[in-house]
Specification:
The protein has 453 residues and is of the alpha/beta class. It is built from eleven helices and 23 strands. Helix 4 packs parallel to helix 5 and helix 9 crosses helix 11. Bound molecules: thymidine-5'-diphosphate and magnesium ion (MG).
């Protein structure tokens, strides 16, 4: 027996409160408590009649799951070599970014490879899905569609499947369990629906993919616990003004994290971009100050990205810092180091920083390229077209080593760059016909740019 208790649950962090308040004591979020009915098991847990569990040895071969390759190189790479049978993946992203399109194309591909695929949409009607499938050229495939929101019905249906299938739920926030007295999208519903669906999918060792909405701050809506319940968390990101989309793994129990896949949104769906560096550099202008190329690394893949800066005198009391694609705190740090260690005056200047192509960079290794773009803009000296940068900047103005320098240099060589600006302590295999500038301090970079590298 279980009895119903009125509880207030924070929709951001999932903490339970016995009474309502305007602010969650745990995460300090305002207005996030919602009344939900929570069933509590009655009676002491020690009396529960559990079954004896069977232990296994890790050397047992049957514990290894085969991976399902999707024919989408970009998705396979992000997943760490394909989807693992019996795994659960959560994919989040802004509305309209292309989650439904991506997964429809994915099952379209898989059904061509004779995989059994099921696509359940709680957001779109069958005629809407049909229109999209028409556009993507997968109308005649053998995907099974349903437009339902009752998670209990879905769980019963997928629980009766005998063979491994690929199951897509679009989206977890639209699903509900009738026995729970809260509306769809609330913490209790999201958690319970995900739990039911995961158990049902695991019975047939199927691959379950849940689409999730993101909140204003960019995290997947619903409790953090949803991210703990799944094996892999992917984010599909990009700027709606750009055609490019990036699929990024944030958590992966079966592969590396921070691996990215790059796509372009066309009128016939998403197209994979095999060589993103080429694409991100394609619109670069010659002889313009304020542009520096960063030899970056996304997961295991090297990628060259243009960092653009525009620095100009400000008419405001607190000058503007407008940043697209990079971290605000890191820009403040770099400008403080430039100001105090290199005597580059920025405190009364507006700084606009843009990572071209709509991609977001998280690596501290981009510090040197950002500093170079700022110096180049302040001094109005263009940086040579064949120069790339990587290196982390410390608070005392020192330039620190970064990981995987060889991979970065190889990518730069491949794309015709021949001048590498890197930390002095970085050990690299020297490639022929390449010029290396090893820097110890950020002030060395100012000298180098002023001398017109
Ligand atoms: P969608 O997959 O519905 O986004 P999500 O599920 O993340 O909300 O993508 C919708 C957007 O993509 C919409 O603005 C139209 C655009 N789109 C294309 O540009 N080309 C296409 O072939 C398709 C199917 C969609
Ligand atoms: Mg959608």
């Amino acid at each position: 027996m279980s009895k119903l208790n009125k509880q207030y649950i924070c929709q951001i962090c999932g903490t339970l409160h016995s009474k309502w308040s305007g602010k969650c004591e745990n995460c300090n979020e305002w207005n996030s408590l919602l009344e939900e009915n929570v069933s509590k098991p009655s009676g002491p847990l020690s009396k529960s009649s559990g079954h004896k569990i069977k232990f296994e040895y890790l050397k047992n071969d049957t514990l290894e799951y085969p991976r399902l390759k999707t024919n989408f190189n970009e998705i396979d790479r992000v997943m760490g070599g394909g989807f693992v049978s019996g795994s659960v993946t959560l994919i989040g992203g802004d509305p309209g970014i292309g989650k439904s399109t991506l997964l429809l194309q994915l099952v379209g591909n898989l059904s061509k490879m004779n995989e059994q695929c099921i696509y359940v949409s709680g957001e779109e009607s069958l005629s809407q899905i049909k229109m999209r499938a028409d556009r993507l050229g997968i109308k005649d495939s053998n995907i099974q569609f349903a437009s339902v929101t009752n998670a209990s019905d879905i769980a019963t249906t997928i629980g009766s499947i005998k063979t491994r299938s690929v199951l897509i739920i679009d989206s977890i926030q639209t699903m509900y369990l009738p026995q729970i007295d809260s509306s769809p999208g609330t913490v209790t519903q999201v958690r319970a629906c995900a739990h039911e669906l995961i158990i049902a999918a695991k019975k047939s060792n199927s691959i379950l993919v849940l689409i999730g909405h993101v909140t204003k701050d960019g995290s997947i809506a619903g409790p953090r616990v949803l991210e703990h319940m799944v094996d892999t968390v992917l984010y599909f990101e990009g700027d709606n003004n750009f055609q490019y989309r990036v699929l990024r793994s944030m958590k992966n129990r079966f592969g590396p994290t921070n691996e990215i896949g790059v796509f372009e949104m066309l009128n016939v769906g998403l197209k994979e971009i095999m060589n993103p560096s080429k694409l991100f550099l394609s619109d670069r202008q010659k002889n313009v100050s304020g542009s520096a190329i960063f030899a970056g690394l996304e997961g295991t893949r090297p990628i060259l990205i243009e960092v653009q800066a525009l620095v100009m005198p400000s008419s405001l009391a607190s000058p503007r810092r407008t940043i697209v694609g990079w971290d605000t705190a890191r820009l403040s740090m770099i400008s403080a180091v430039l100001e105090s260690r290199c005597k580059i005056h920025l405190s009364n200047m507006d700084i606009f920083l843009n990572i071209a192509g709509g991609i977001k960079i998280f690596e501290p290794a981009a510090d040197l390229a950002v500093a170079a773009a700022i110096i180049s803009s302040v001094k109005d000296v263009p940086i040579s077209f064949s120069t790339v940068f990587f290196g982390e900047v410390g608070l005392s103005g020192e330039i620190r080593k970064v990981n995987q320098a060889e991979l970065r240099i190889k990518e730069a060589t491949k794309l015709g760059f021949d001048n590498i600006i890197l930390p002095s302590k970085q050990k690299v295999i020297i490639e022929k016909n390449m010029n290396y500038n090893n820097l110890t301090l950020l002030s060395d970079l100012v000298d180098l740019i002023t001398k017109n590298i």
